[in-house]
């Protein structure tokens, strides 16, 4: 039965996939990857992703996540990851569907839950990325959501309802603790998310960890512990990942200005920038910029 449901989901995703991954339903994205590319650095977004065919591998700091057909991933924070689809080809493309997670909707569902409907959560922050097998009722709800792409008359009314059902299934499921923290204003995850957001917005400037901990409303020791639990990185390592990712995006449009790009993302030392860039992407900045210039825009992360 589960195999038949996955077959139906595969067929729907294959038919509705677009090159830009968008759909007519807000916050719903369909991916169809027909070749395995080298690992690429990208941001996860806050998302629930269900794989119907193929396998994806993600590296977050020192953690490796691998999930395939019939499994789902939750990213509760927008995190820099290195990812790739494995063994994808035109005859057997990787197929998946993603749903953007909205903390306000999670908070609404938590408020509507009755006494005893939700398990008790621990006090600490969970990992920002978790993977699980997709239960039958969650696959069924995802199928009904994607089917609405064929039903424009019903989409506006029913899509928000089915998205709420999907969120409820995840909130009450195996990885619910991670998603529930999204809707709690004073959770450890929300404190870390505040720090993540600040670092992303000010990635080019140096900072003291003590100051970011204070901004997050946590002691320094609790901040270090919870930040690493969520991101698998220290705050300084996280900043470096964001800097290198932004540098690569800038080099794609300014390939001849390696020095200028390194300064724009916060590096004072060009040799350090080149060394860390090469370690991250496998090529020196100038060579990688040349490669990016000859890469189709749809394949640049």
From TrEMBL:
Keyword Transcription regulation among UniProt keywords: yes
Pfam families per record: AraC_N, HTH_18
UniProt keyword annotations, A-Z: DNA-binding, Transcription, Transcription regulation
HTH araC/xylS-type domain ranges (all copies): 193-291
GO MF annotations, alphabetized: DNA-binding transcription factor activity; sequence-specific DNA binding
Gene3D superfamilies: Homeodomain-like
Protein name: AraC-type DNA-binding protein
């Amino acid at each position: 039965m589960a195999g038949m449901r996955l077959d139906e989901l595969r067929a729907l995703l294959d038919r509705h996939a677009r090159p830009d991954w968008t759909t007519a339903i807000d916050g719903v994205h369909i991916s169809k990857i027909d070749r395995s590319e080298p690992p690429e650095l990208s941001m996860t977004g806050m998302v629930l992703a269900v794989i119907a065919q193929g396998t994806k591998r993600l590296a977050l700091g020192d953690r490796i996540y691998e999930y395939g057909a019939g499994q789902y991933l939750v990213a509760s924070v927008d995190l820099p990851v290195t990812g790739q689809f494995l063994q994808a080809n035109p005859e057997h493309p990787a197929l998946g569907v993603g749903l953007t997670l909205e903390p306000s909707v999670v908070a609404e569902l938590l408020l509507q839950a009755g006494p005893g409907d939700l398990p008790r959560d621990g006090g600490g922050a969970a990992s920002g990325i978790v993977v699980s097998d997709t239960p039958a009722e969650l696959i069924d709800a995802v199928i009904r959501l994607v089917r609405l792409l064929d039903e424009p008359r019903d989409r506006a009314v029913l899509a928000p309802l089915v998205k709420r059902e999907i969120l409820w299934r995840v909130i009450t499921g195996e990885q619910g603790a991670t998603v529930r923290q999204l809707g709690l204003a004073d959770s450890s995850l929300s404190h870390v998310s505040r720090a993540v957001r600040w670092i992303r917005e000010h990635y080019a400037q140096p900072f003291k960890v003590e100051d970011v901990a204070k901004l997050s409303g946590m002691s320094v020791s609790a901040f270090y512990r919870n930040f690493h639990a969520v991101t698998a990185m220290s705050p300084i390592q996280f900043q470096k990942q964001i800097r290198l990712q932004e540098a690569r995006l800038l080099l794609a449009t300014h390939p001849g200005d390696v020095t200028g790009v390194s300064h724009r993302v916060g590096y004072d030392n060009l040799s350090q920038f080149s060394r860390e860039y090469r370690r991250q992407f496998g090529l020196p900045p100038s060579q990688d910029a040349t490669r990016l210039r000859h890469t189709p825009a749809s394949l640049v992360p």
